[in-house]
Amino acid sequence: xxxxxxxxLEPRPRGLHLVTGEVTGALPELRGVRAGLLHxxxxxxxxSLTLNENASPDVRRDLxxxxxxxxxxxxAWTHTLEGADDMPAHVKATLTGPELTLPVRDGRLAxxxxxxxxxxxxxxxxxxxxxxxxxxxxxx
Amino acid sequence: xxxxxxxxLEPRPRGLHLVTGEVTGALPELRGVRAGLLHxxxxxxxxSLTLNENASPDVRRDLxxxxxxxxxxxxAWTHTLEGADDMPAHVKATLTGPELTLPVRDGRLAxxxxxxxxxxxxxxxxxxxxxxxxxxxxxx
Amino acid sequence: xxxxxxxxLEPRPRGLHLVTGEVTGALPELRGVRAGLLHxxxxxxxxSLTLNENASPDVRRDLxxxxxxxxxxxxAWTHTLEGADDMPAHVKATLTGPELTLPVRDGRLAxxxxxxxxxxxxxxxxxxxxxxxxxxxxxx
Lengths: 140, 140, 140
What we know:
The structure is a homotrimer.
Chain A: E1 2-9, E2 13-18, H1 20-25, E3 33-42, E4 47-53, H2 57-70, H3 86-96, E5 99-105, E6 108-109, E7 115-125, E8 129-139
Antiparallel strand pairs in A: 1-8, 2-7, 3-5, 3-8, 4-7, 5-6
């Protein structure tokens, strides 16, 4: 049983954003999977997808603060034509990664209690972001 | 052919720990897979799963030393209620990631000679850690 | 439908290198998959696989510059027997990761316009690098 679909995430400001609901809401077929996996590829190189703490927004803010400090705009970049936030965005996206594979059990994502799918938007104005979602598993 | 199972890793101190044997020992079904994949999701946001050098323990120690230096407890954190080791743990877990997909060939994980599944425990007292393991492939 | 194959990447100097063509060229079965996934495991702990910008080589150079600055050879390493570039290579490989799962749609990788499969060679002379490629999906 395979489902493959493009999901377009609405534009968000720079920072980390929970998108679990937006992703699962676009995949009603999840409910029909007894045991399987959901793969998500973000088709961009200046934003990323992670699993992060889904309760305290201050955890997401602190994550952004650390990333901004570790990968500063003021650095020996040579690729600067697309703006000061562009090259740091590529590095942050490389460190945190563009794709996730998540287990599906009894029609739901089998995440930990505190885990949420997180869009890491590293550009000031990244615009809408596109995900290719692939779901497969045993129906039940 | 799908197998999905929860594996509880025993509590370990802060640091990097090889858990290949503990994981594969909990999955006797591995031996029945000719070609397939094993997916592991660690259901936590302050520990992570990586593939690392499986021989020299000093490589794992040096990795920890670097992570502690790059993500210090003494930083402009705002989320500090759960202890000085908590927010650095979330950042380190985000950098190293909570999940792995590994190829299975002829009944065994097809890892490189020097690769081992590594639990990165970023908390001082993280307690037991839970993995959802999903195995699927062609029997043979 | 399962295909599993070892791909040996030719030796490359330290730095980031696009290998999309080398990988897909070794997998003619891709063309027969309507909807599926391709998993790539690099069987090494001092190099890594990422998705990165496939157009500007200066983005790849800047990524290397940042990694070299963030994980310097001059640090409190204890594991130094295999050369000054070895322990930094393990850390960089851990941060960027050894494996990728990529969606396949209508016989092609469904990557973003600017995404390319990137071998991050963190050693000065890493030699040939081995990938285990696993492809599965619905034929069509």
